[in-house]
Amino acid sequence: MTSKTVHKSLTVLEKFTVEQPAWGLRELARELDMNHTVVHRFLSTFEDRGYLTKNEDSGKYEVGFKLLELSHVAQEKFKLSEQIQATMQKLAMETGESSVFTLRDHDYGVFINIAEGSNIVRFADSIGRRSPLYLGATHKSILAYLPEDAIARVGERAVEEKFIQSPSQLHETLKVIREQGYAYSASETFEDVAAMAVPIFNRDARVIGSLGIAGPPYRISEEYAMKNAHILFRYQKEIQPIIKVSPNELSELYVN
Q1: Residue 145, SS3?
Q2: What pLDDT score does 129 carry?
Q3: How far is C-alpha 238 from the geometric centre of its chain's CA atoms?
Q4: CA-derived radius of gyration, the chain
Q5: 106-161 pLDDT, tens per residue?
Q6: How far is CA 170 from CA 37, 92, 104, 116, 144, in A?
Q7: For a Cys staple, 183 with which of 42, 140, 206, 247, CB 3.0–4.6 Å?
Q8: Do the strands 22-23 and 183-186 form a parallel or antiparallel pair, or are they unpaired?
Q9: How far is CA 88 from CA 29, 140, 142, 238, in A?
Q10: What share of the chain has pLDDT > 70, as a percent?
Q11: Under DSSP, is residue 245 helix (H, G, I), strand (E, B) or coil?
Q12: DSSP 8-state class, residue 199
């Protein structure tokens, strides 16, 4: 199997998301602009290996138990230490909002852990969600401190996906984030959800993730963010000594 074939097969598999958990053969082929015979071959292989299953009633393909098994493996690998979880819980209790810990994955950010506050928004199902770094405060607070080539690459994608009109628009946003030390967004990653976040650095002063809070925009407004940024800065200082590891030592963040 060539790398091109592997890439195509993974493109098929990655179409199964929370927003679209089931696909019929022909609708998936149309979505991917791919020959339906080729798509059928990929789907059949994934079904044989347990990554997908075919619903007998609807005739559509759905996620199989093999992916559930892999998700548990990933959850165990990226389970944060009790000390970090306790810090996140304190932040959630103090603000009443959900605290969110995000790690960078190349040009994406992944929600690794979420601690619910008293004002529950129910983000628990979002753990493991992977979104481009131009989307939302938790991600843009990471992007703002990346090298220029990474920012340019993400900016090009944001333009391609019509999130922004030009890379300069993103550069201006990131400049503001660096000046104030935190990022704010509303209804970008989730509709009717606002967030504010600060970057988290390793001991080499390289950004590896972010710590933030999220809730409805009527509670977390831009004014709220300005008045309460000091809370995130305080927890940023508290959590970074736990997290100050080099890229080769990131496994120390997790419970094995």
Answers
A1: coil
A2: 81
A3: 23
A4: 20
A5: 899 988 888 887 776 655 557 778 889 999 999 999 999 999 999 999 999 999 99
A6: 41, 29, 18, 30, 9
A7: 140
A8: unpaired
A9: 43, 20, 18, 10
A10: 87
A11: coil
A12: E
Neighbours of 8 (CB within 10 A): 15
**Distance between CA atoms of 50 and 40, rounded to whole angstroms?**
15
Residue pair 55/21 in contact by the 8 Å Cβ criterion: no
Our CA angle for 238, 240, 243, nearest 5°, is: 130
Q: Report the C-alpha dihedral over residues 134, 140, 143, 145, rounded to 10 degrees.
A: 160
User: Which token pair is 17?
Assistant: 């998301």
Following CA atoms 219, 223, 224, 228 in sequence, which dihedral angle do they give, to the nearest 10 degrees? 170
pTM (predicted TM-score) = 0.71
pLDDT at 1 > cutoff 60: no
Matching residue, tokens 């481009």: 132
**Span 231-246, average pLDDT:** 80
- The span from the CA of 242 to the CA of 222, in Å, is 29
46, 138, 190, 196, 203 from 100: Cα distances, Å: 33, 8, 14, 10, 21
